[in-house]
Amino acid sequence: MKRKEVVLFMIVGTGINCSDEDGARLVAQKLYSTITKMYPSKVVFFASEQSKNTIPYIEELFAQDNDEFILDDDYQIVLIESIDNFNACFEVFESKIWEFDEDIMNDYQIIMDYTSGTKTMSAAMACCGMFYRKDLISVGGDRSHGEVSSGTEIINYQNLYQIYDRISIARARRYFNSNRFMQCIDILERIVDVRFDKESSINICKSYYSWDIMDFENAYEYLKKVDLSNFDLIEIMEKLKKNLKALGMMVNSKSPNLKNCYILASLINNSIRKAEEYKYDDAIARLYRSFELIAQIQLSKYNIKSSDVDISVLMEKNVSEEFIEYLKKTEEDGKIRIGLVADFLLLNELGDKLGKYFVQNESKIKNLTQKRNNSILAHGLESQTEEDFNQFLEVVSELAHKLDKDMSRFLNETTFAKFDLRFE
C-alpha cells in the first residue's frame, strides 16, 4: 500500500509586527520547530501580506542545518486577505483541502496546525479541519513567560473522536425521527466511543425498519435485544417498552381480535408516517388497507371471512336471500370473495354499527375510495393531496375507534418513538 504524503497546513502568525525582524524571526523559529518535528512532504503556509515576510527566515533556518526549503517544491504560500473574517478564512482553508483531496495522482494526509495567526484564523482552521475530519494539532510547551518558550515546544494532536461521535449521534437521531432507519444504521456503525450503546441503538433501527415494512416478527426479535435500562435511551425508554408490548401482542397473542387490532393500529400509524414524508399516495394506500381490515376484523366476530364467505353462516345470521344472491355474483373457483364495499354492506345486513356507519356516510366514503382508485398507486394516474389524506384518515380513525374501545391505546403503543432534537 502506498504511504500517504503528509501535507502540513500552517497559519503564519500575525500577532507580532512582522516589520520587526526579531519578532518575525521568533515566529519563524516556532514554525520551523514544528516543521522539523513533523517531517511533512509539503507545507502550506496561510499568511497575510504582512506575515508572509516571515517565511524567508524559515528558509534561513533550514539553510543553517544544511537543508533546503524551496518554494513550490517544499512549500507554498496562500494569501488570506481578510484575516478577521471567519467565512473568508474558512473558504480559503476549504479550497486547499479540496485541492489536495481531489488530486487523483496522490494520496495526502492533511494535518492542520491552528496554533498561530489571529483568533479568527485559528478558529476557522479548527472548524474547517473538524468539518472535513482532518488531523488537528496545536503547539504547547512552557508558558511560564506567556508565550511558549523556544525549545520546549510539544505538538498536541487533538482527539476529536468524541466530538465526531456527538455530531454523528445528532445526525443519526434526525434520520431516526425521519424514519430513515437504514441511513441511521450507517451513521451509528461509525461511532467509536465504547461508552455509547451502539448495539442497542442499531437494533432499535432494525426493529423499526422491519416494523415499517410490516415484518412484525423480526421487529419484535430486534427490539427484544435492546437494553432498555441503558442511559442513552432514557429519553425514549417508556415508548420502547410500549412498542415491545405491542409487537409481542402481534406476534404471540392467542386472541385473533387483539392481534388484529394492534396490526390495524400499526397500519394506521404507518400511513401517518408516510404522510409526514409527503408521500400521500403511499399513505392513502395504507389507509385503504386499514379501512378494509376494519371490516374484515369485524366480520370475523361473526365467523365470516371476506376471502371465503360461507353462505350457510349468512343464512344462520338471517341475511336476506336478495343480498346473498348479490354476493354470489362474486363467486369464482367455488369461493365467494368480497371487497371493501361489500364487506361493509354485509355488516349493515347483519345490523352491525360499522355497517350502519358506512351506509350513513356512503356518498362521502365512495368519493374518498374513488380518489384512491384514481391514484397512481392504484388504478389511475392522479396524485393524492394532504387534504385527501386527512379526509380519509378522519373516516378510518372514526371507524377504528368504533371497532374497539381500546383503539386509542393500540395507536399509542404502536407509535414510533422520537428523540428530542434540542442541543444540550
* Total domain count: 3
Q: Helix-strand pattern, N to C?
A: EHEHEHEHEEHHHHHHHHHEEHHHHH
For the record, give the distance between the C-alpha atoms at the N and C termini, rounded to a whole number: 43 Å
Radius of gyration over all CA atoms, rounded = 34 Å
Number of helices: 18
Shape by Cα distribution: elongated
Strand content: 5-15%
Number of strands: 8
Mean pLDDT: 89
Strand order of the largest sheet: 3-2-1-4-5-6
Low-confidence stretches: none
Note down, in words, how this protein is organized:
- With 424 residues, the protein is of the alpha/beta class.
- The protein has helices at residues 21-38, 55-64, 86-101, 119-131, 161-177, 181-189, 198-212, 216-224, 237-252, 256-276, 280-300, 311-316, 321-328, 340-349, 353-360, 362-373, 386-403, 407-413, and strands at 5-11, 42-47, 75-79, 108-113, 135-140, 154-157, 331-332, 335-336.
- The protein is elongated and about 110 Å long.
Key phrases:
single chain; 424 residues; alpha/beta; Rossmann fold; 3 domains; six-stranded mixed sheet; two-stranded antiparallel ribbon
Offer a concise description of the structure.
The chain is α/β, with parallel strands linked by helices and 424 residues long. The chain contains 18 helices and 8 strands. The chain folds into 3 domains: 154 residues, Hypothetical protein VC1899 like domain (Restriction endonuclease-like) (Rossmann fold); 92 residues; 171 residues, no CATH class.
